[in-house]
Amino acid sequence: MADNEREFITTGEQPDIPRSKWSGKLAFILAGAASAVGLGNLWRFPTLAARYGGGTFLITYIILAFTIGISLLLLETALGRKTQQSVIGAYASFGKKYRWIGKLACIVPFIITPYYCIIGGWVTRYAVGYLTDGPVAIADGGGFFKGFITDPASSFAFMLVFMAITFIVVAMGVEGGIEKANFVMMPALLVVAVGISVFVLMQPGAAQGAAYYLTPDFSKISPALLVGALGQMFYSLSLAMGIMVTYGSYLDKKESLTGSVASIAGFDSVVSFLAGLMIVPVAFMAFGSADAVAAKSGPSLMFITLPGVFESMGGAAPIIGFLFFLLVLFAALTSSISLTEACVSIVADGTHWTRRRSLIFCIVVIVVVGGFVNAGYNVLSFIQPLGEGSTLLDLFDFLSNSVIMPIVALVTCIFVGWIVKPKTLIDEVRLSSPFRFAKVWTVIIKYVAPVFMVIILVSYVAQTFGLVNF
Ligand code: PFF
After folding, report:
1. How large is the average pLDDT for residues 22-43?
2. What is the sign of the dihedral through the CA atoms of 157, 159, 160 and 166?
3. CB atoms closer than 10 angstroms to residue 286
4. Neighbouring residues of 458: CB distance < 8 A, sequence distance ≥ 6
5. Distance 338 CA to ligand 1 centre (A)
6. Distance between CA 282 and CA 371 in Å, rounded?
7. CA 288 to ligand 1 centroid distance, Å
8. Total domain count for the chain?
9. How many angstroms is it from 207 CA to the middle of ligand 1?
10. Is the CB of residue 197 below 6 angstroms from any atom belonging to ligand 1?
């Protein structure tokens, strides 16, 4: 797709302007999977699984992803395909008074992209570090990590490197850049993930960790586990931020929606499963027991614990460390590319600027906001917006994942379930495939999902302000 054609997409609210399409179902699935598979799978999922009882978390997550998650994915893509509009126009096409729902969803990519690129910068630093500094320097119990994030110049520089790669791919256009990048990085990612999982499982002591990860213990089910799994599901499937509505609008009416969303959710879950399979056993090797794993696992698992265990693998350490962070880097890049693309299309839709101008505007915003949030770890570390020890990044993460996304998801379900009515979208889905689960889907959208959304919203906010402690 040429860039001038692409402009029709991004500014395509007028029905008489021809919209470009995905080159096929595969391109759609790959783009959906590329947006879904990211730091959420490789960093967040294993941390949560380690903390919330391994197999118990895994099974809860899979059940939620293939009931509520996949239903919302289908809702968003069907809404996009039906209206042939990206997110703001999609809601507005049912009446101008619904435009605000799309606008609310549009805020999310602008909040996530800057901080996503900061973590992308950390991952870049580690991938480079295995080549330049070596595994011993990195595995120093946290000093390397702290030294890096508190150094304003070098953390900012690595954030910029990560952003630059992202912006270059987005600037190359959808077919010339994004589709090609996905086509290389997604299969590579899967191969490396399988390879590292096999390698880790062959290490002494890994079997116990794998057993913890694979065996559910239903006595471990808790409200915190459920809320954690729900939040993870949204984040991981890139729901409630308008992206999948926009992606659905580029899909041809003859391509099966049900099959496509099942493939996207499947790909995403496989990568999360593999990430857990390599990281939870590593946490077990480091901490020694299930209880210690649950108690000590946190965001530092990837940046501090893992390098420590890699280092103990001797000669394999530099290769395994480099490959692991390269894998995470690919996953983070495919997501940041899709996030940036979402920002660009939102700006182009709203302003009718050219794609180029919209991209330049987004670059400026992302770099400035990213620089500000990054400073929260160093020069602005006195700003602790969510209580002692919290950072600006925590605030951004909280606003998008815990506040705006559940609200958007709740409103979307009410909108489709009770205002435009599920049948409108069921008919759309049935244009291209049978939809045997239409009744179940209707119940999920009208009743189950809204209740769960209210649970997440209330519990996240209450937890953040210390009203409950899971
Ligand atoms: N789903 C991504 C992850 O799991 O890391 C995060 C994400 C990517 C959210 C792209 C939103 C998005 F548009």
Report:
1. 89
2. positive
3. 20
4. none
5. 8
6. 33
7. 32
8. 1
9. 31
10. no
Distance from C-alpha of 376 to C-alpha of 369, rounded to nearest angstrom: 11
CB atoms within 10 A of CB 264: 28
Instruction: Confirm if 33 and 330 have CB atoms less than 8 A apart.
Output: no
Q: Tokens 């915003």 correspond to what residue?
A: 365
Q: What is the spatial distance between Cα 288 and Cα 308, in angstroms, rounded to a whole number?
A: 14
Q: Does any domain span residue 16?
A: no
pTM listed for this prediction: 0.88
CATH of the domain at 227: 1.20.1730
| The pair of three-digit structure tokens given for residue 148, joined into one six-digit string | 């890096």
- Looking at residue 388, what is its pLDDT? 82
Binding site membership of 40 for ligand 1 (Cβ less than 6 Å): yes
Instruction: Indicate the average pLDDT of the chain.
Output: 88
Place of tokens 């009744």: 439
For residues 117 and 89, give the distance between their C-alpha atoms in angstroms, rounded to a whole number. 28
Q: Which of 112-121, 263-272, 273-282, 383-392 has the lowest mean pLDDT?
A: 383-392
Distance 44 CA to ligand 1 centre (A): 11
Q: How many residues does the chain have?
A: 470
- 17 is a domain residue: no
Instruction: Name the token pair of 340.
Output: 């940036």
Kindly state the DSSP code that residue 296 receives in the 8-state scheme.
Answer: H
At position 358, the amino acid (one-letter code) is S
Alpha-carbon gap, residue 16 to 226, rounded angstroms: 46
Q: What count of other Cβ atoms lies within 10 Å of the Cβ of residue 117?
A: 31
Structure tokens at 162: 């990560």
Residues 253 and 259: their CA atoms lie apart, in Å, by 13
CB distance 214 to 54 below 8 Å: yes
- The answer to whether the CB of 239 is under 6 A from ligand 1 is no
Please indicate, yes or no, if residue 1 is contained in any of the structural domains: no
Q: Where are the alpha helices (DSSP H) in 352-404?
A: 355-375, 392-397
Determine, yes or no, domain membership for 35. Answer: yes
Residue 66: give the domain boundaries. Answer: 24-464
In percent, how much of the chain has pLDDT > 90?
Answer: 55
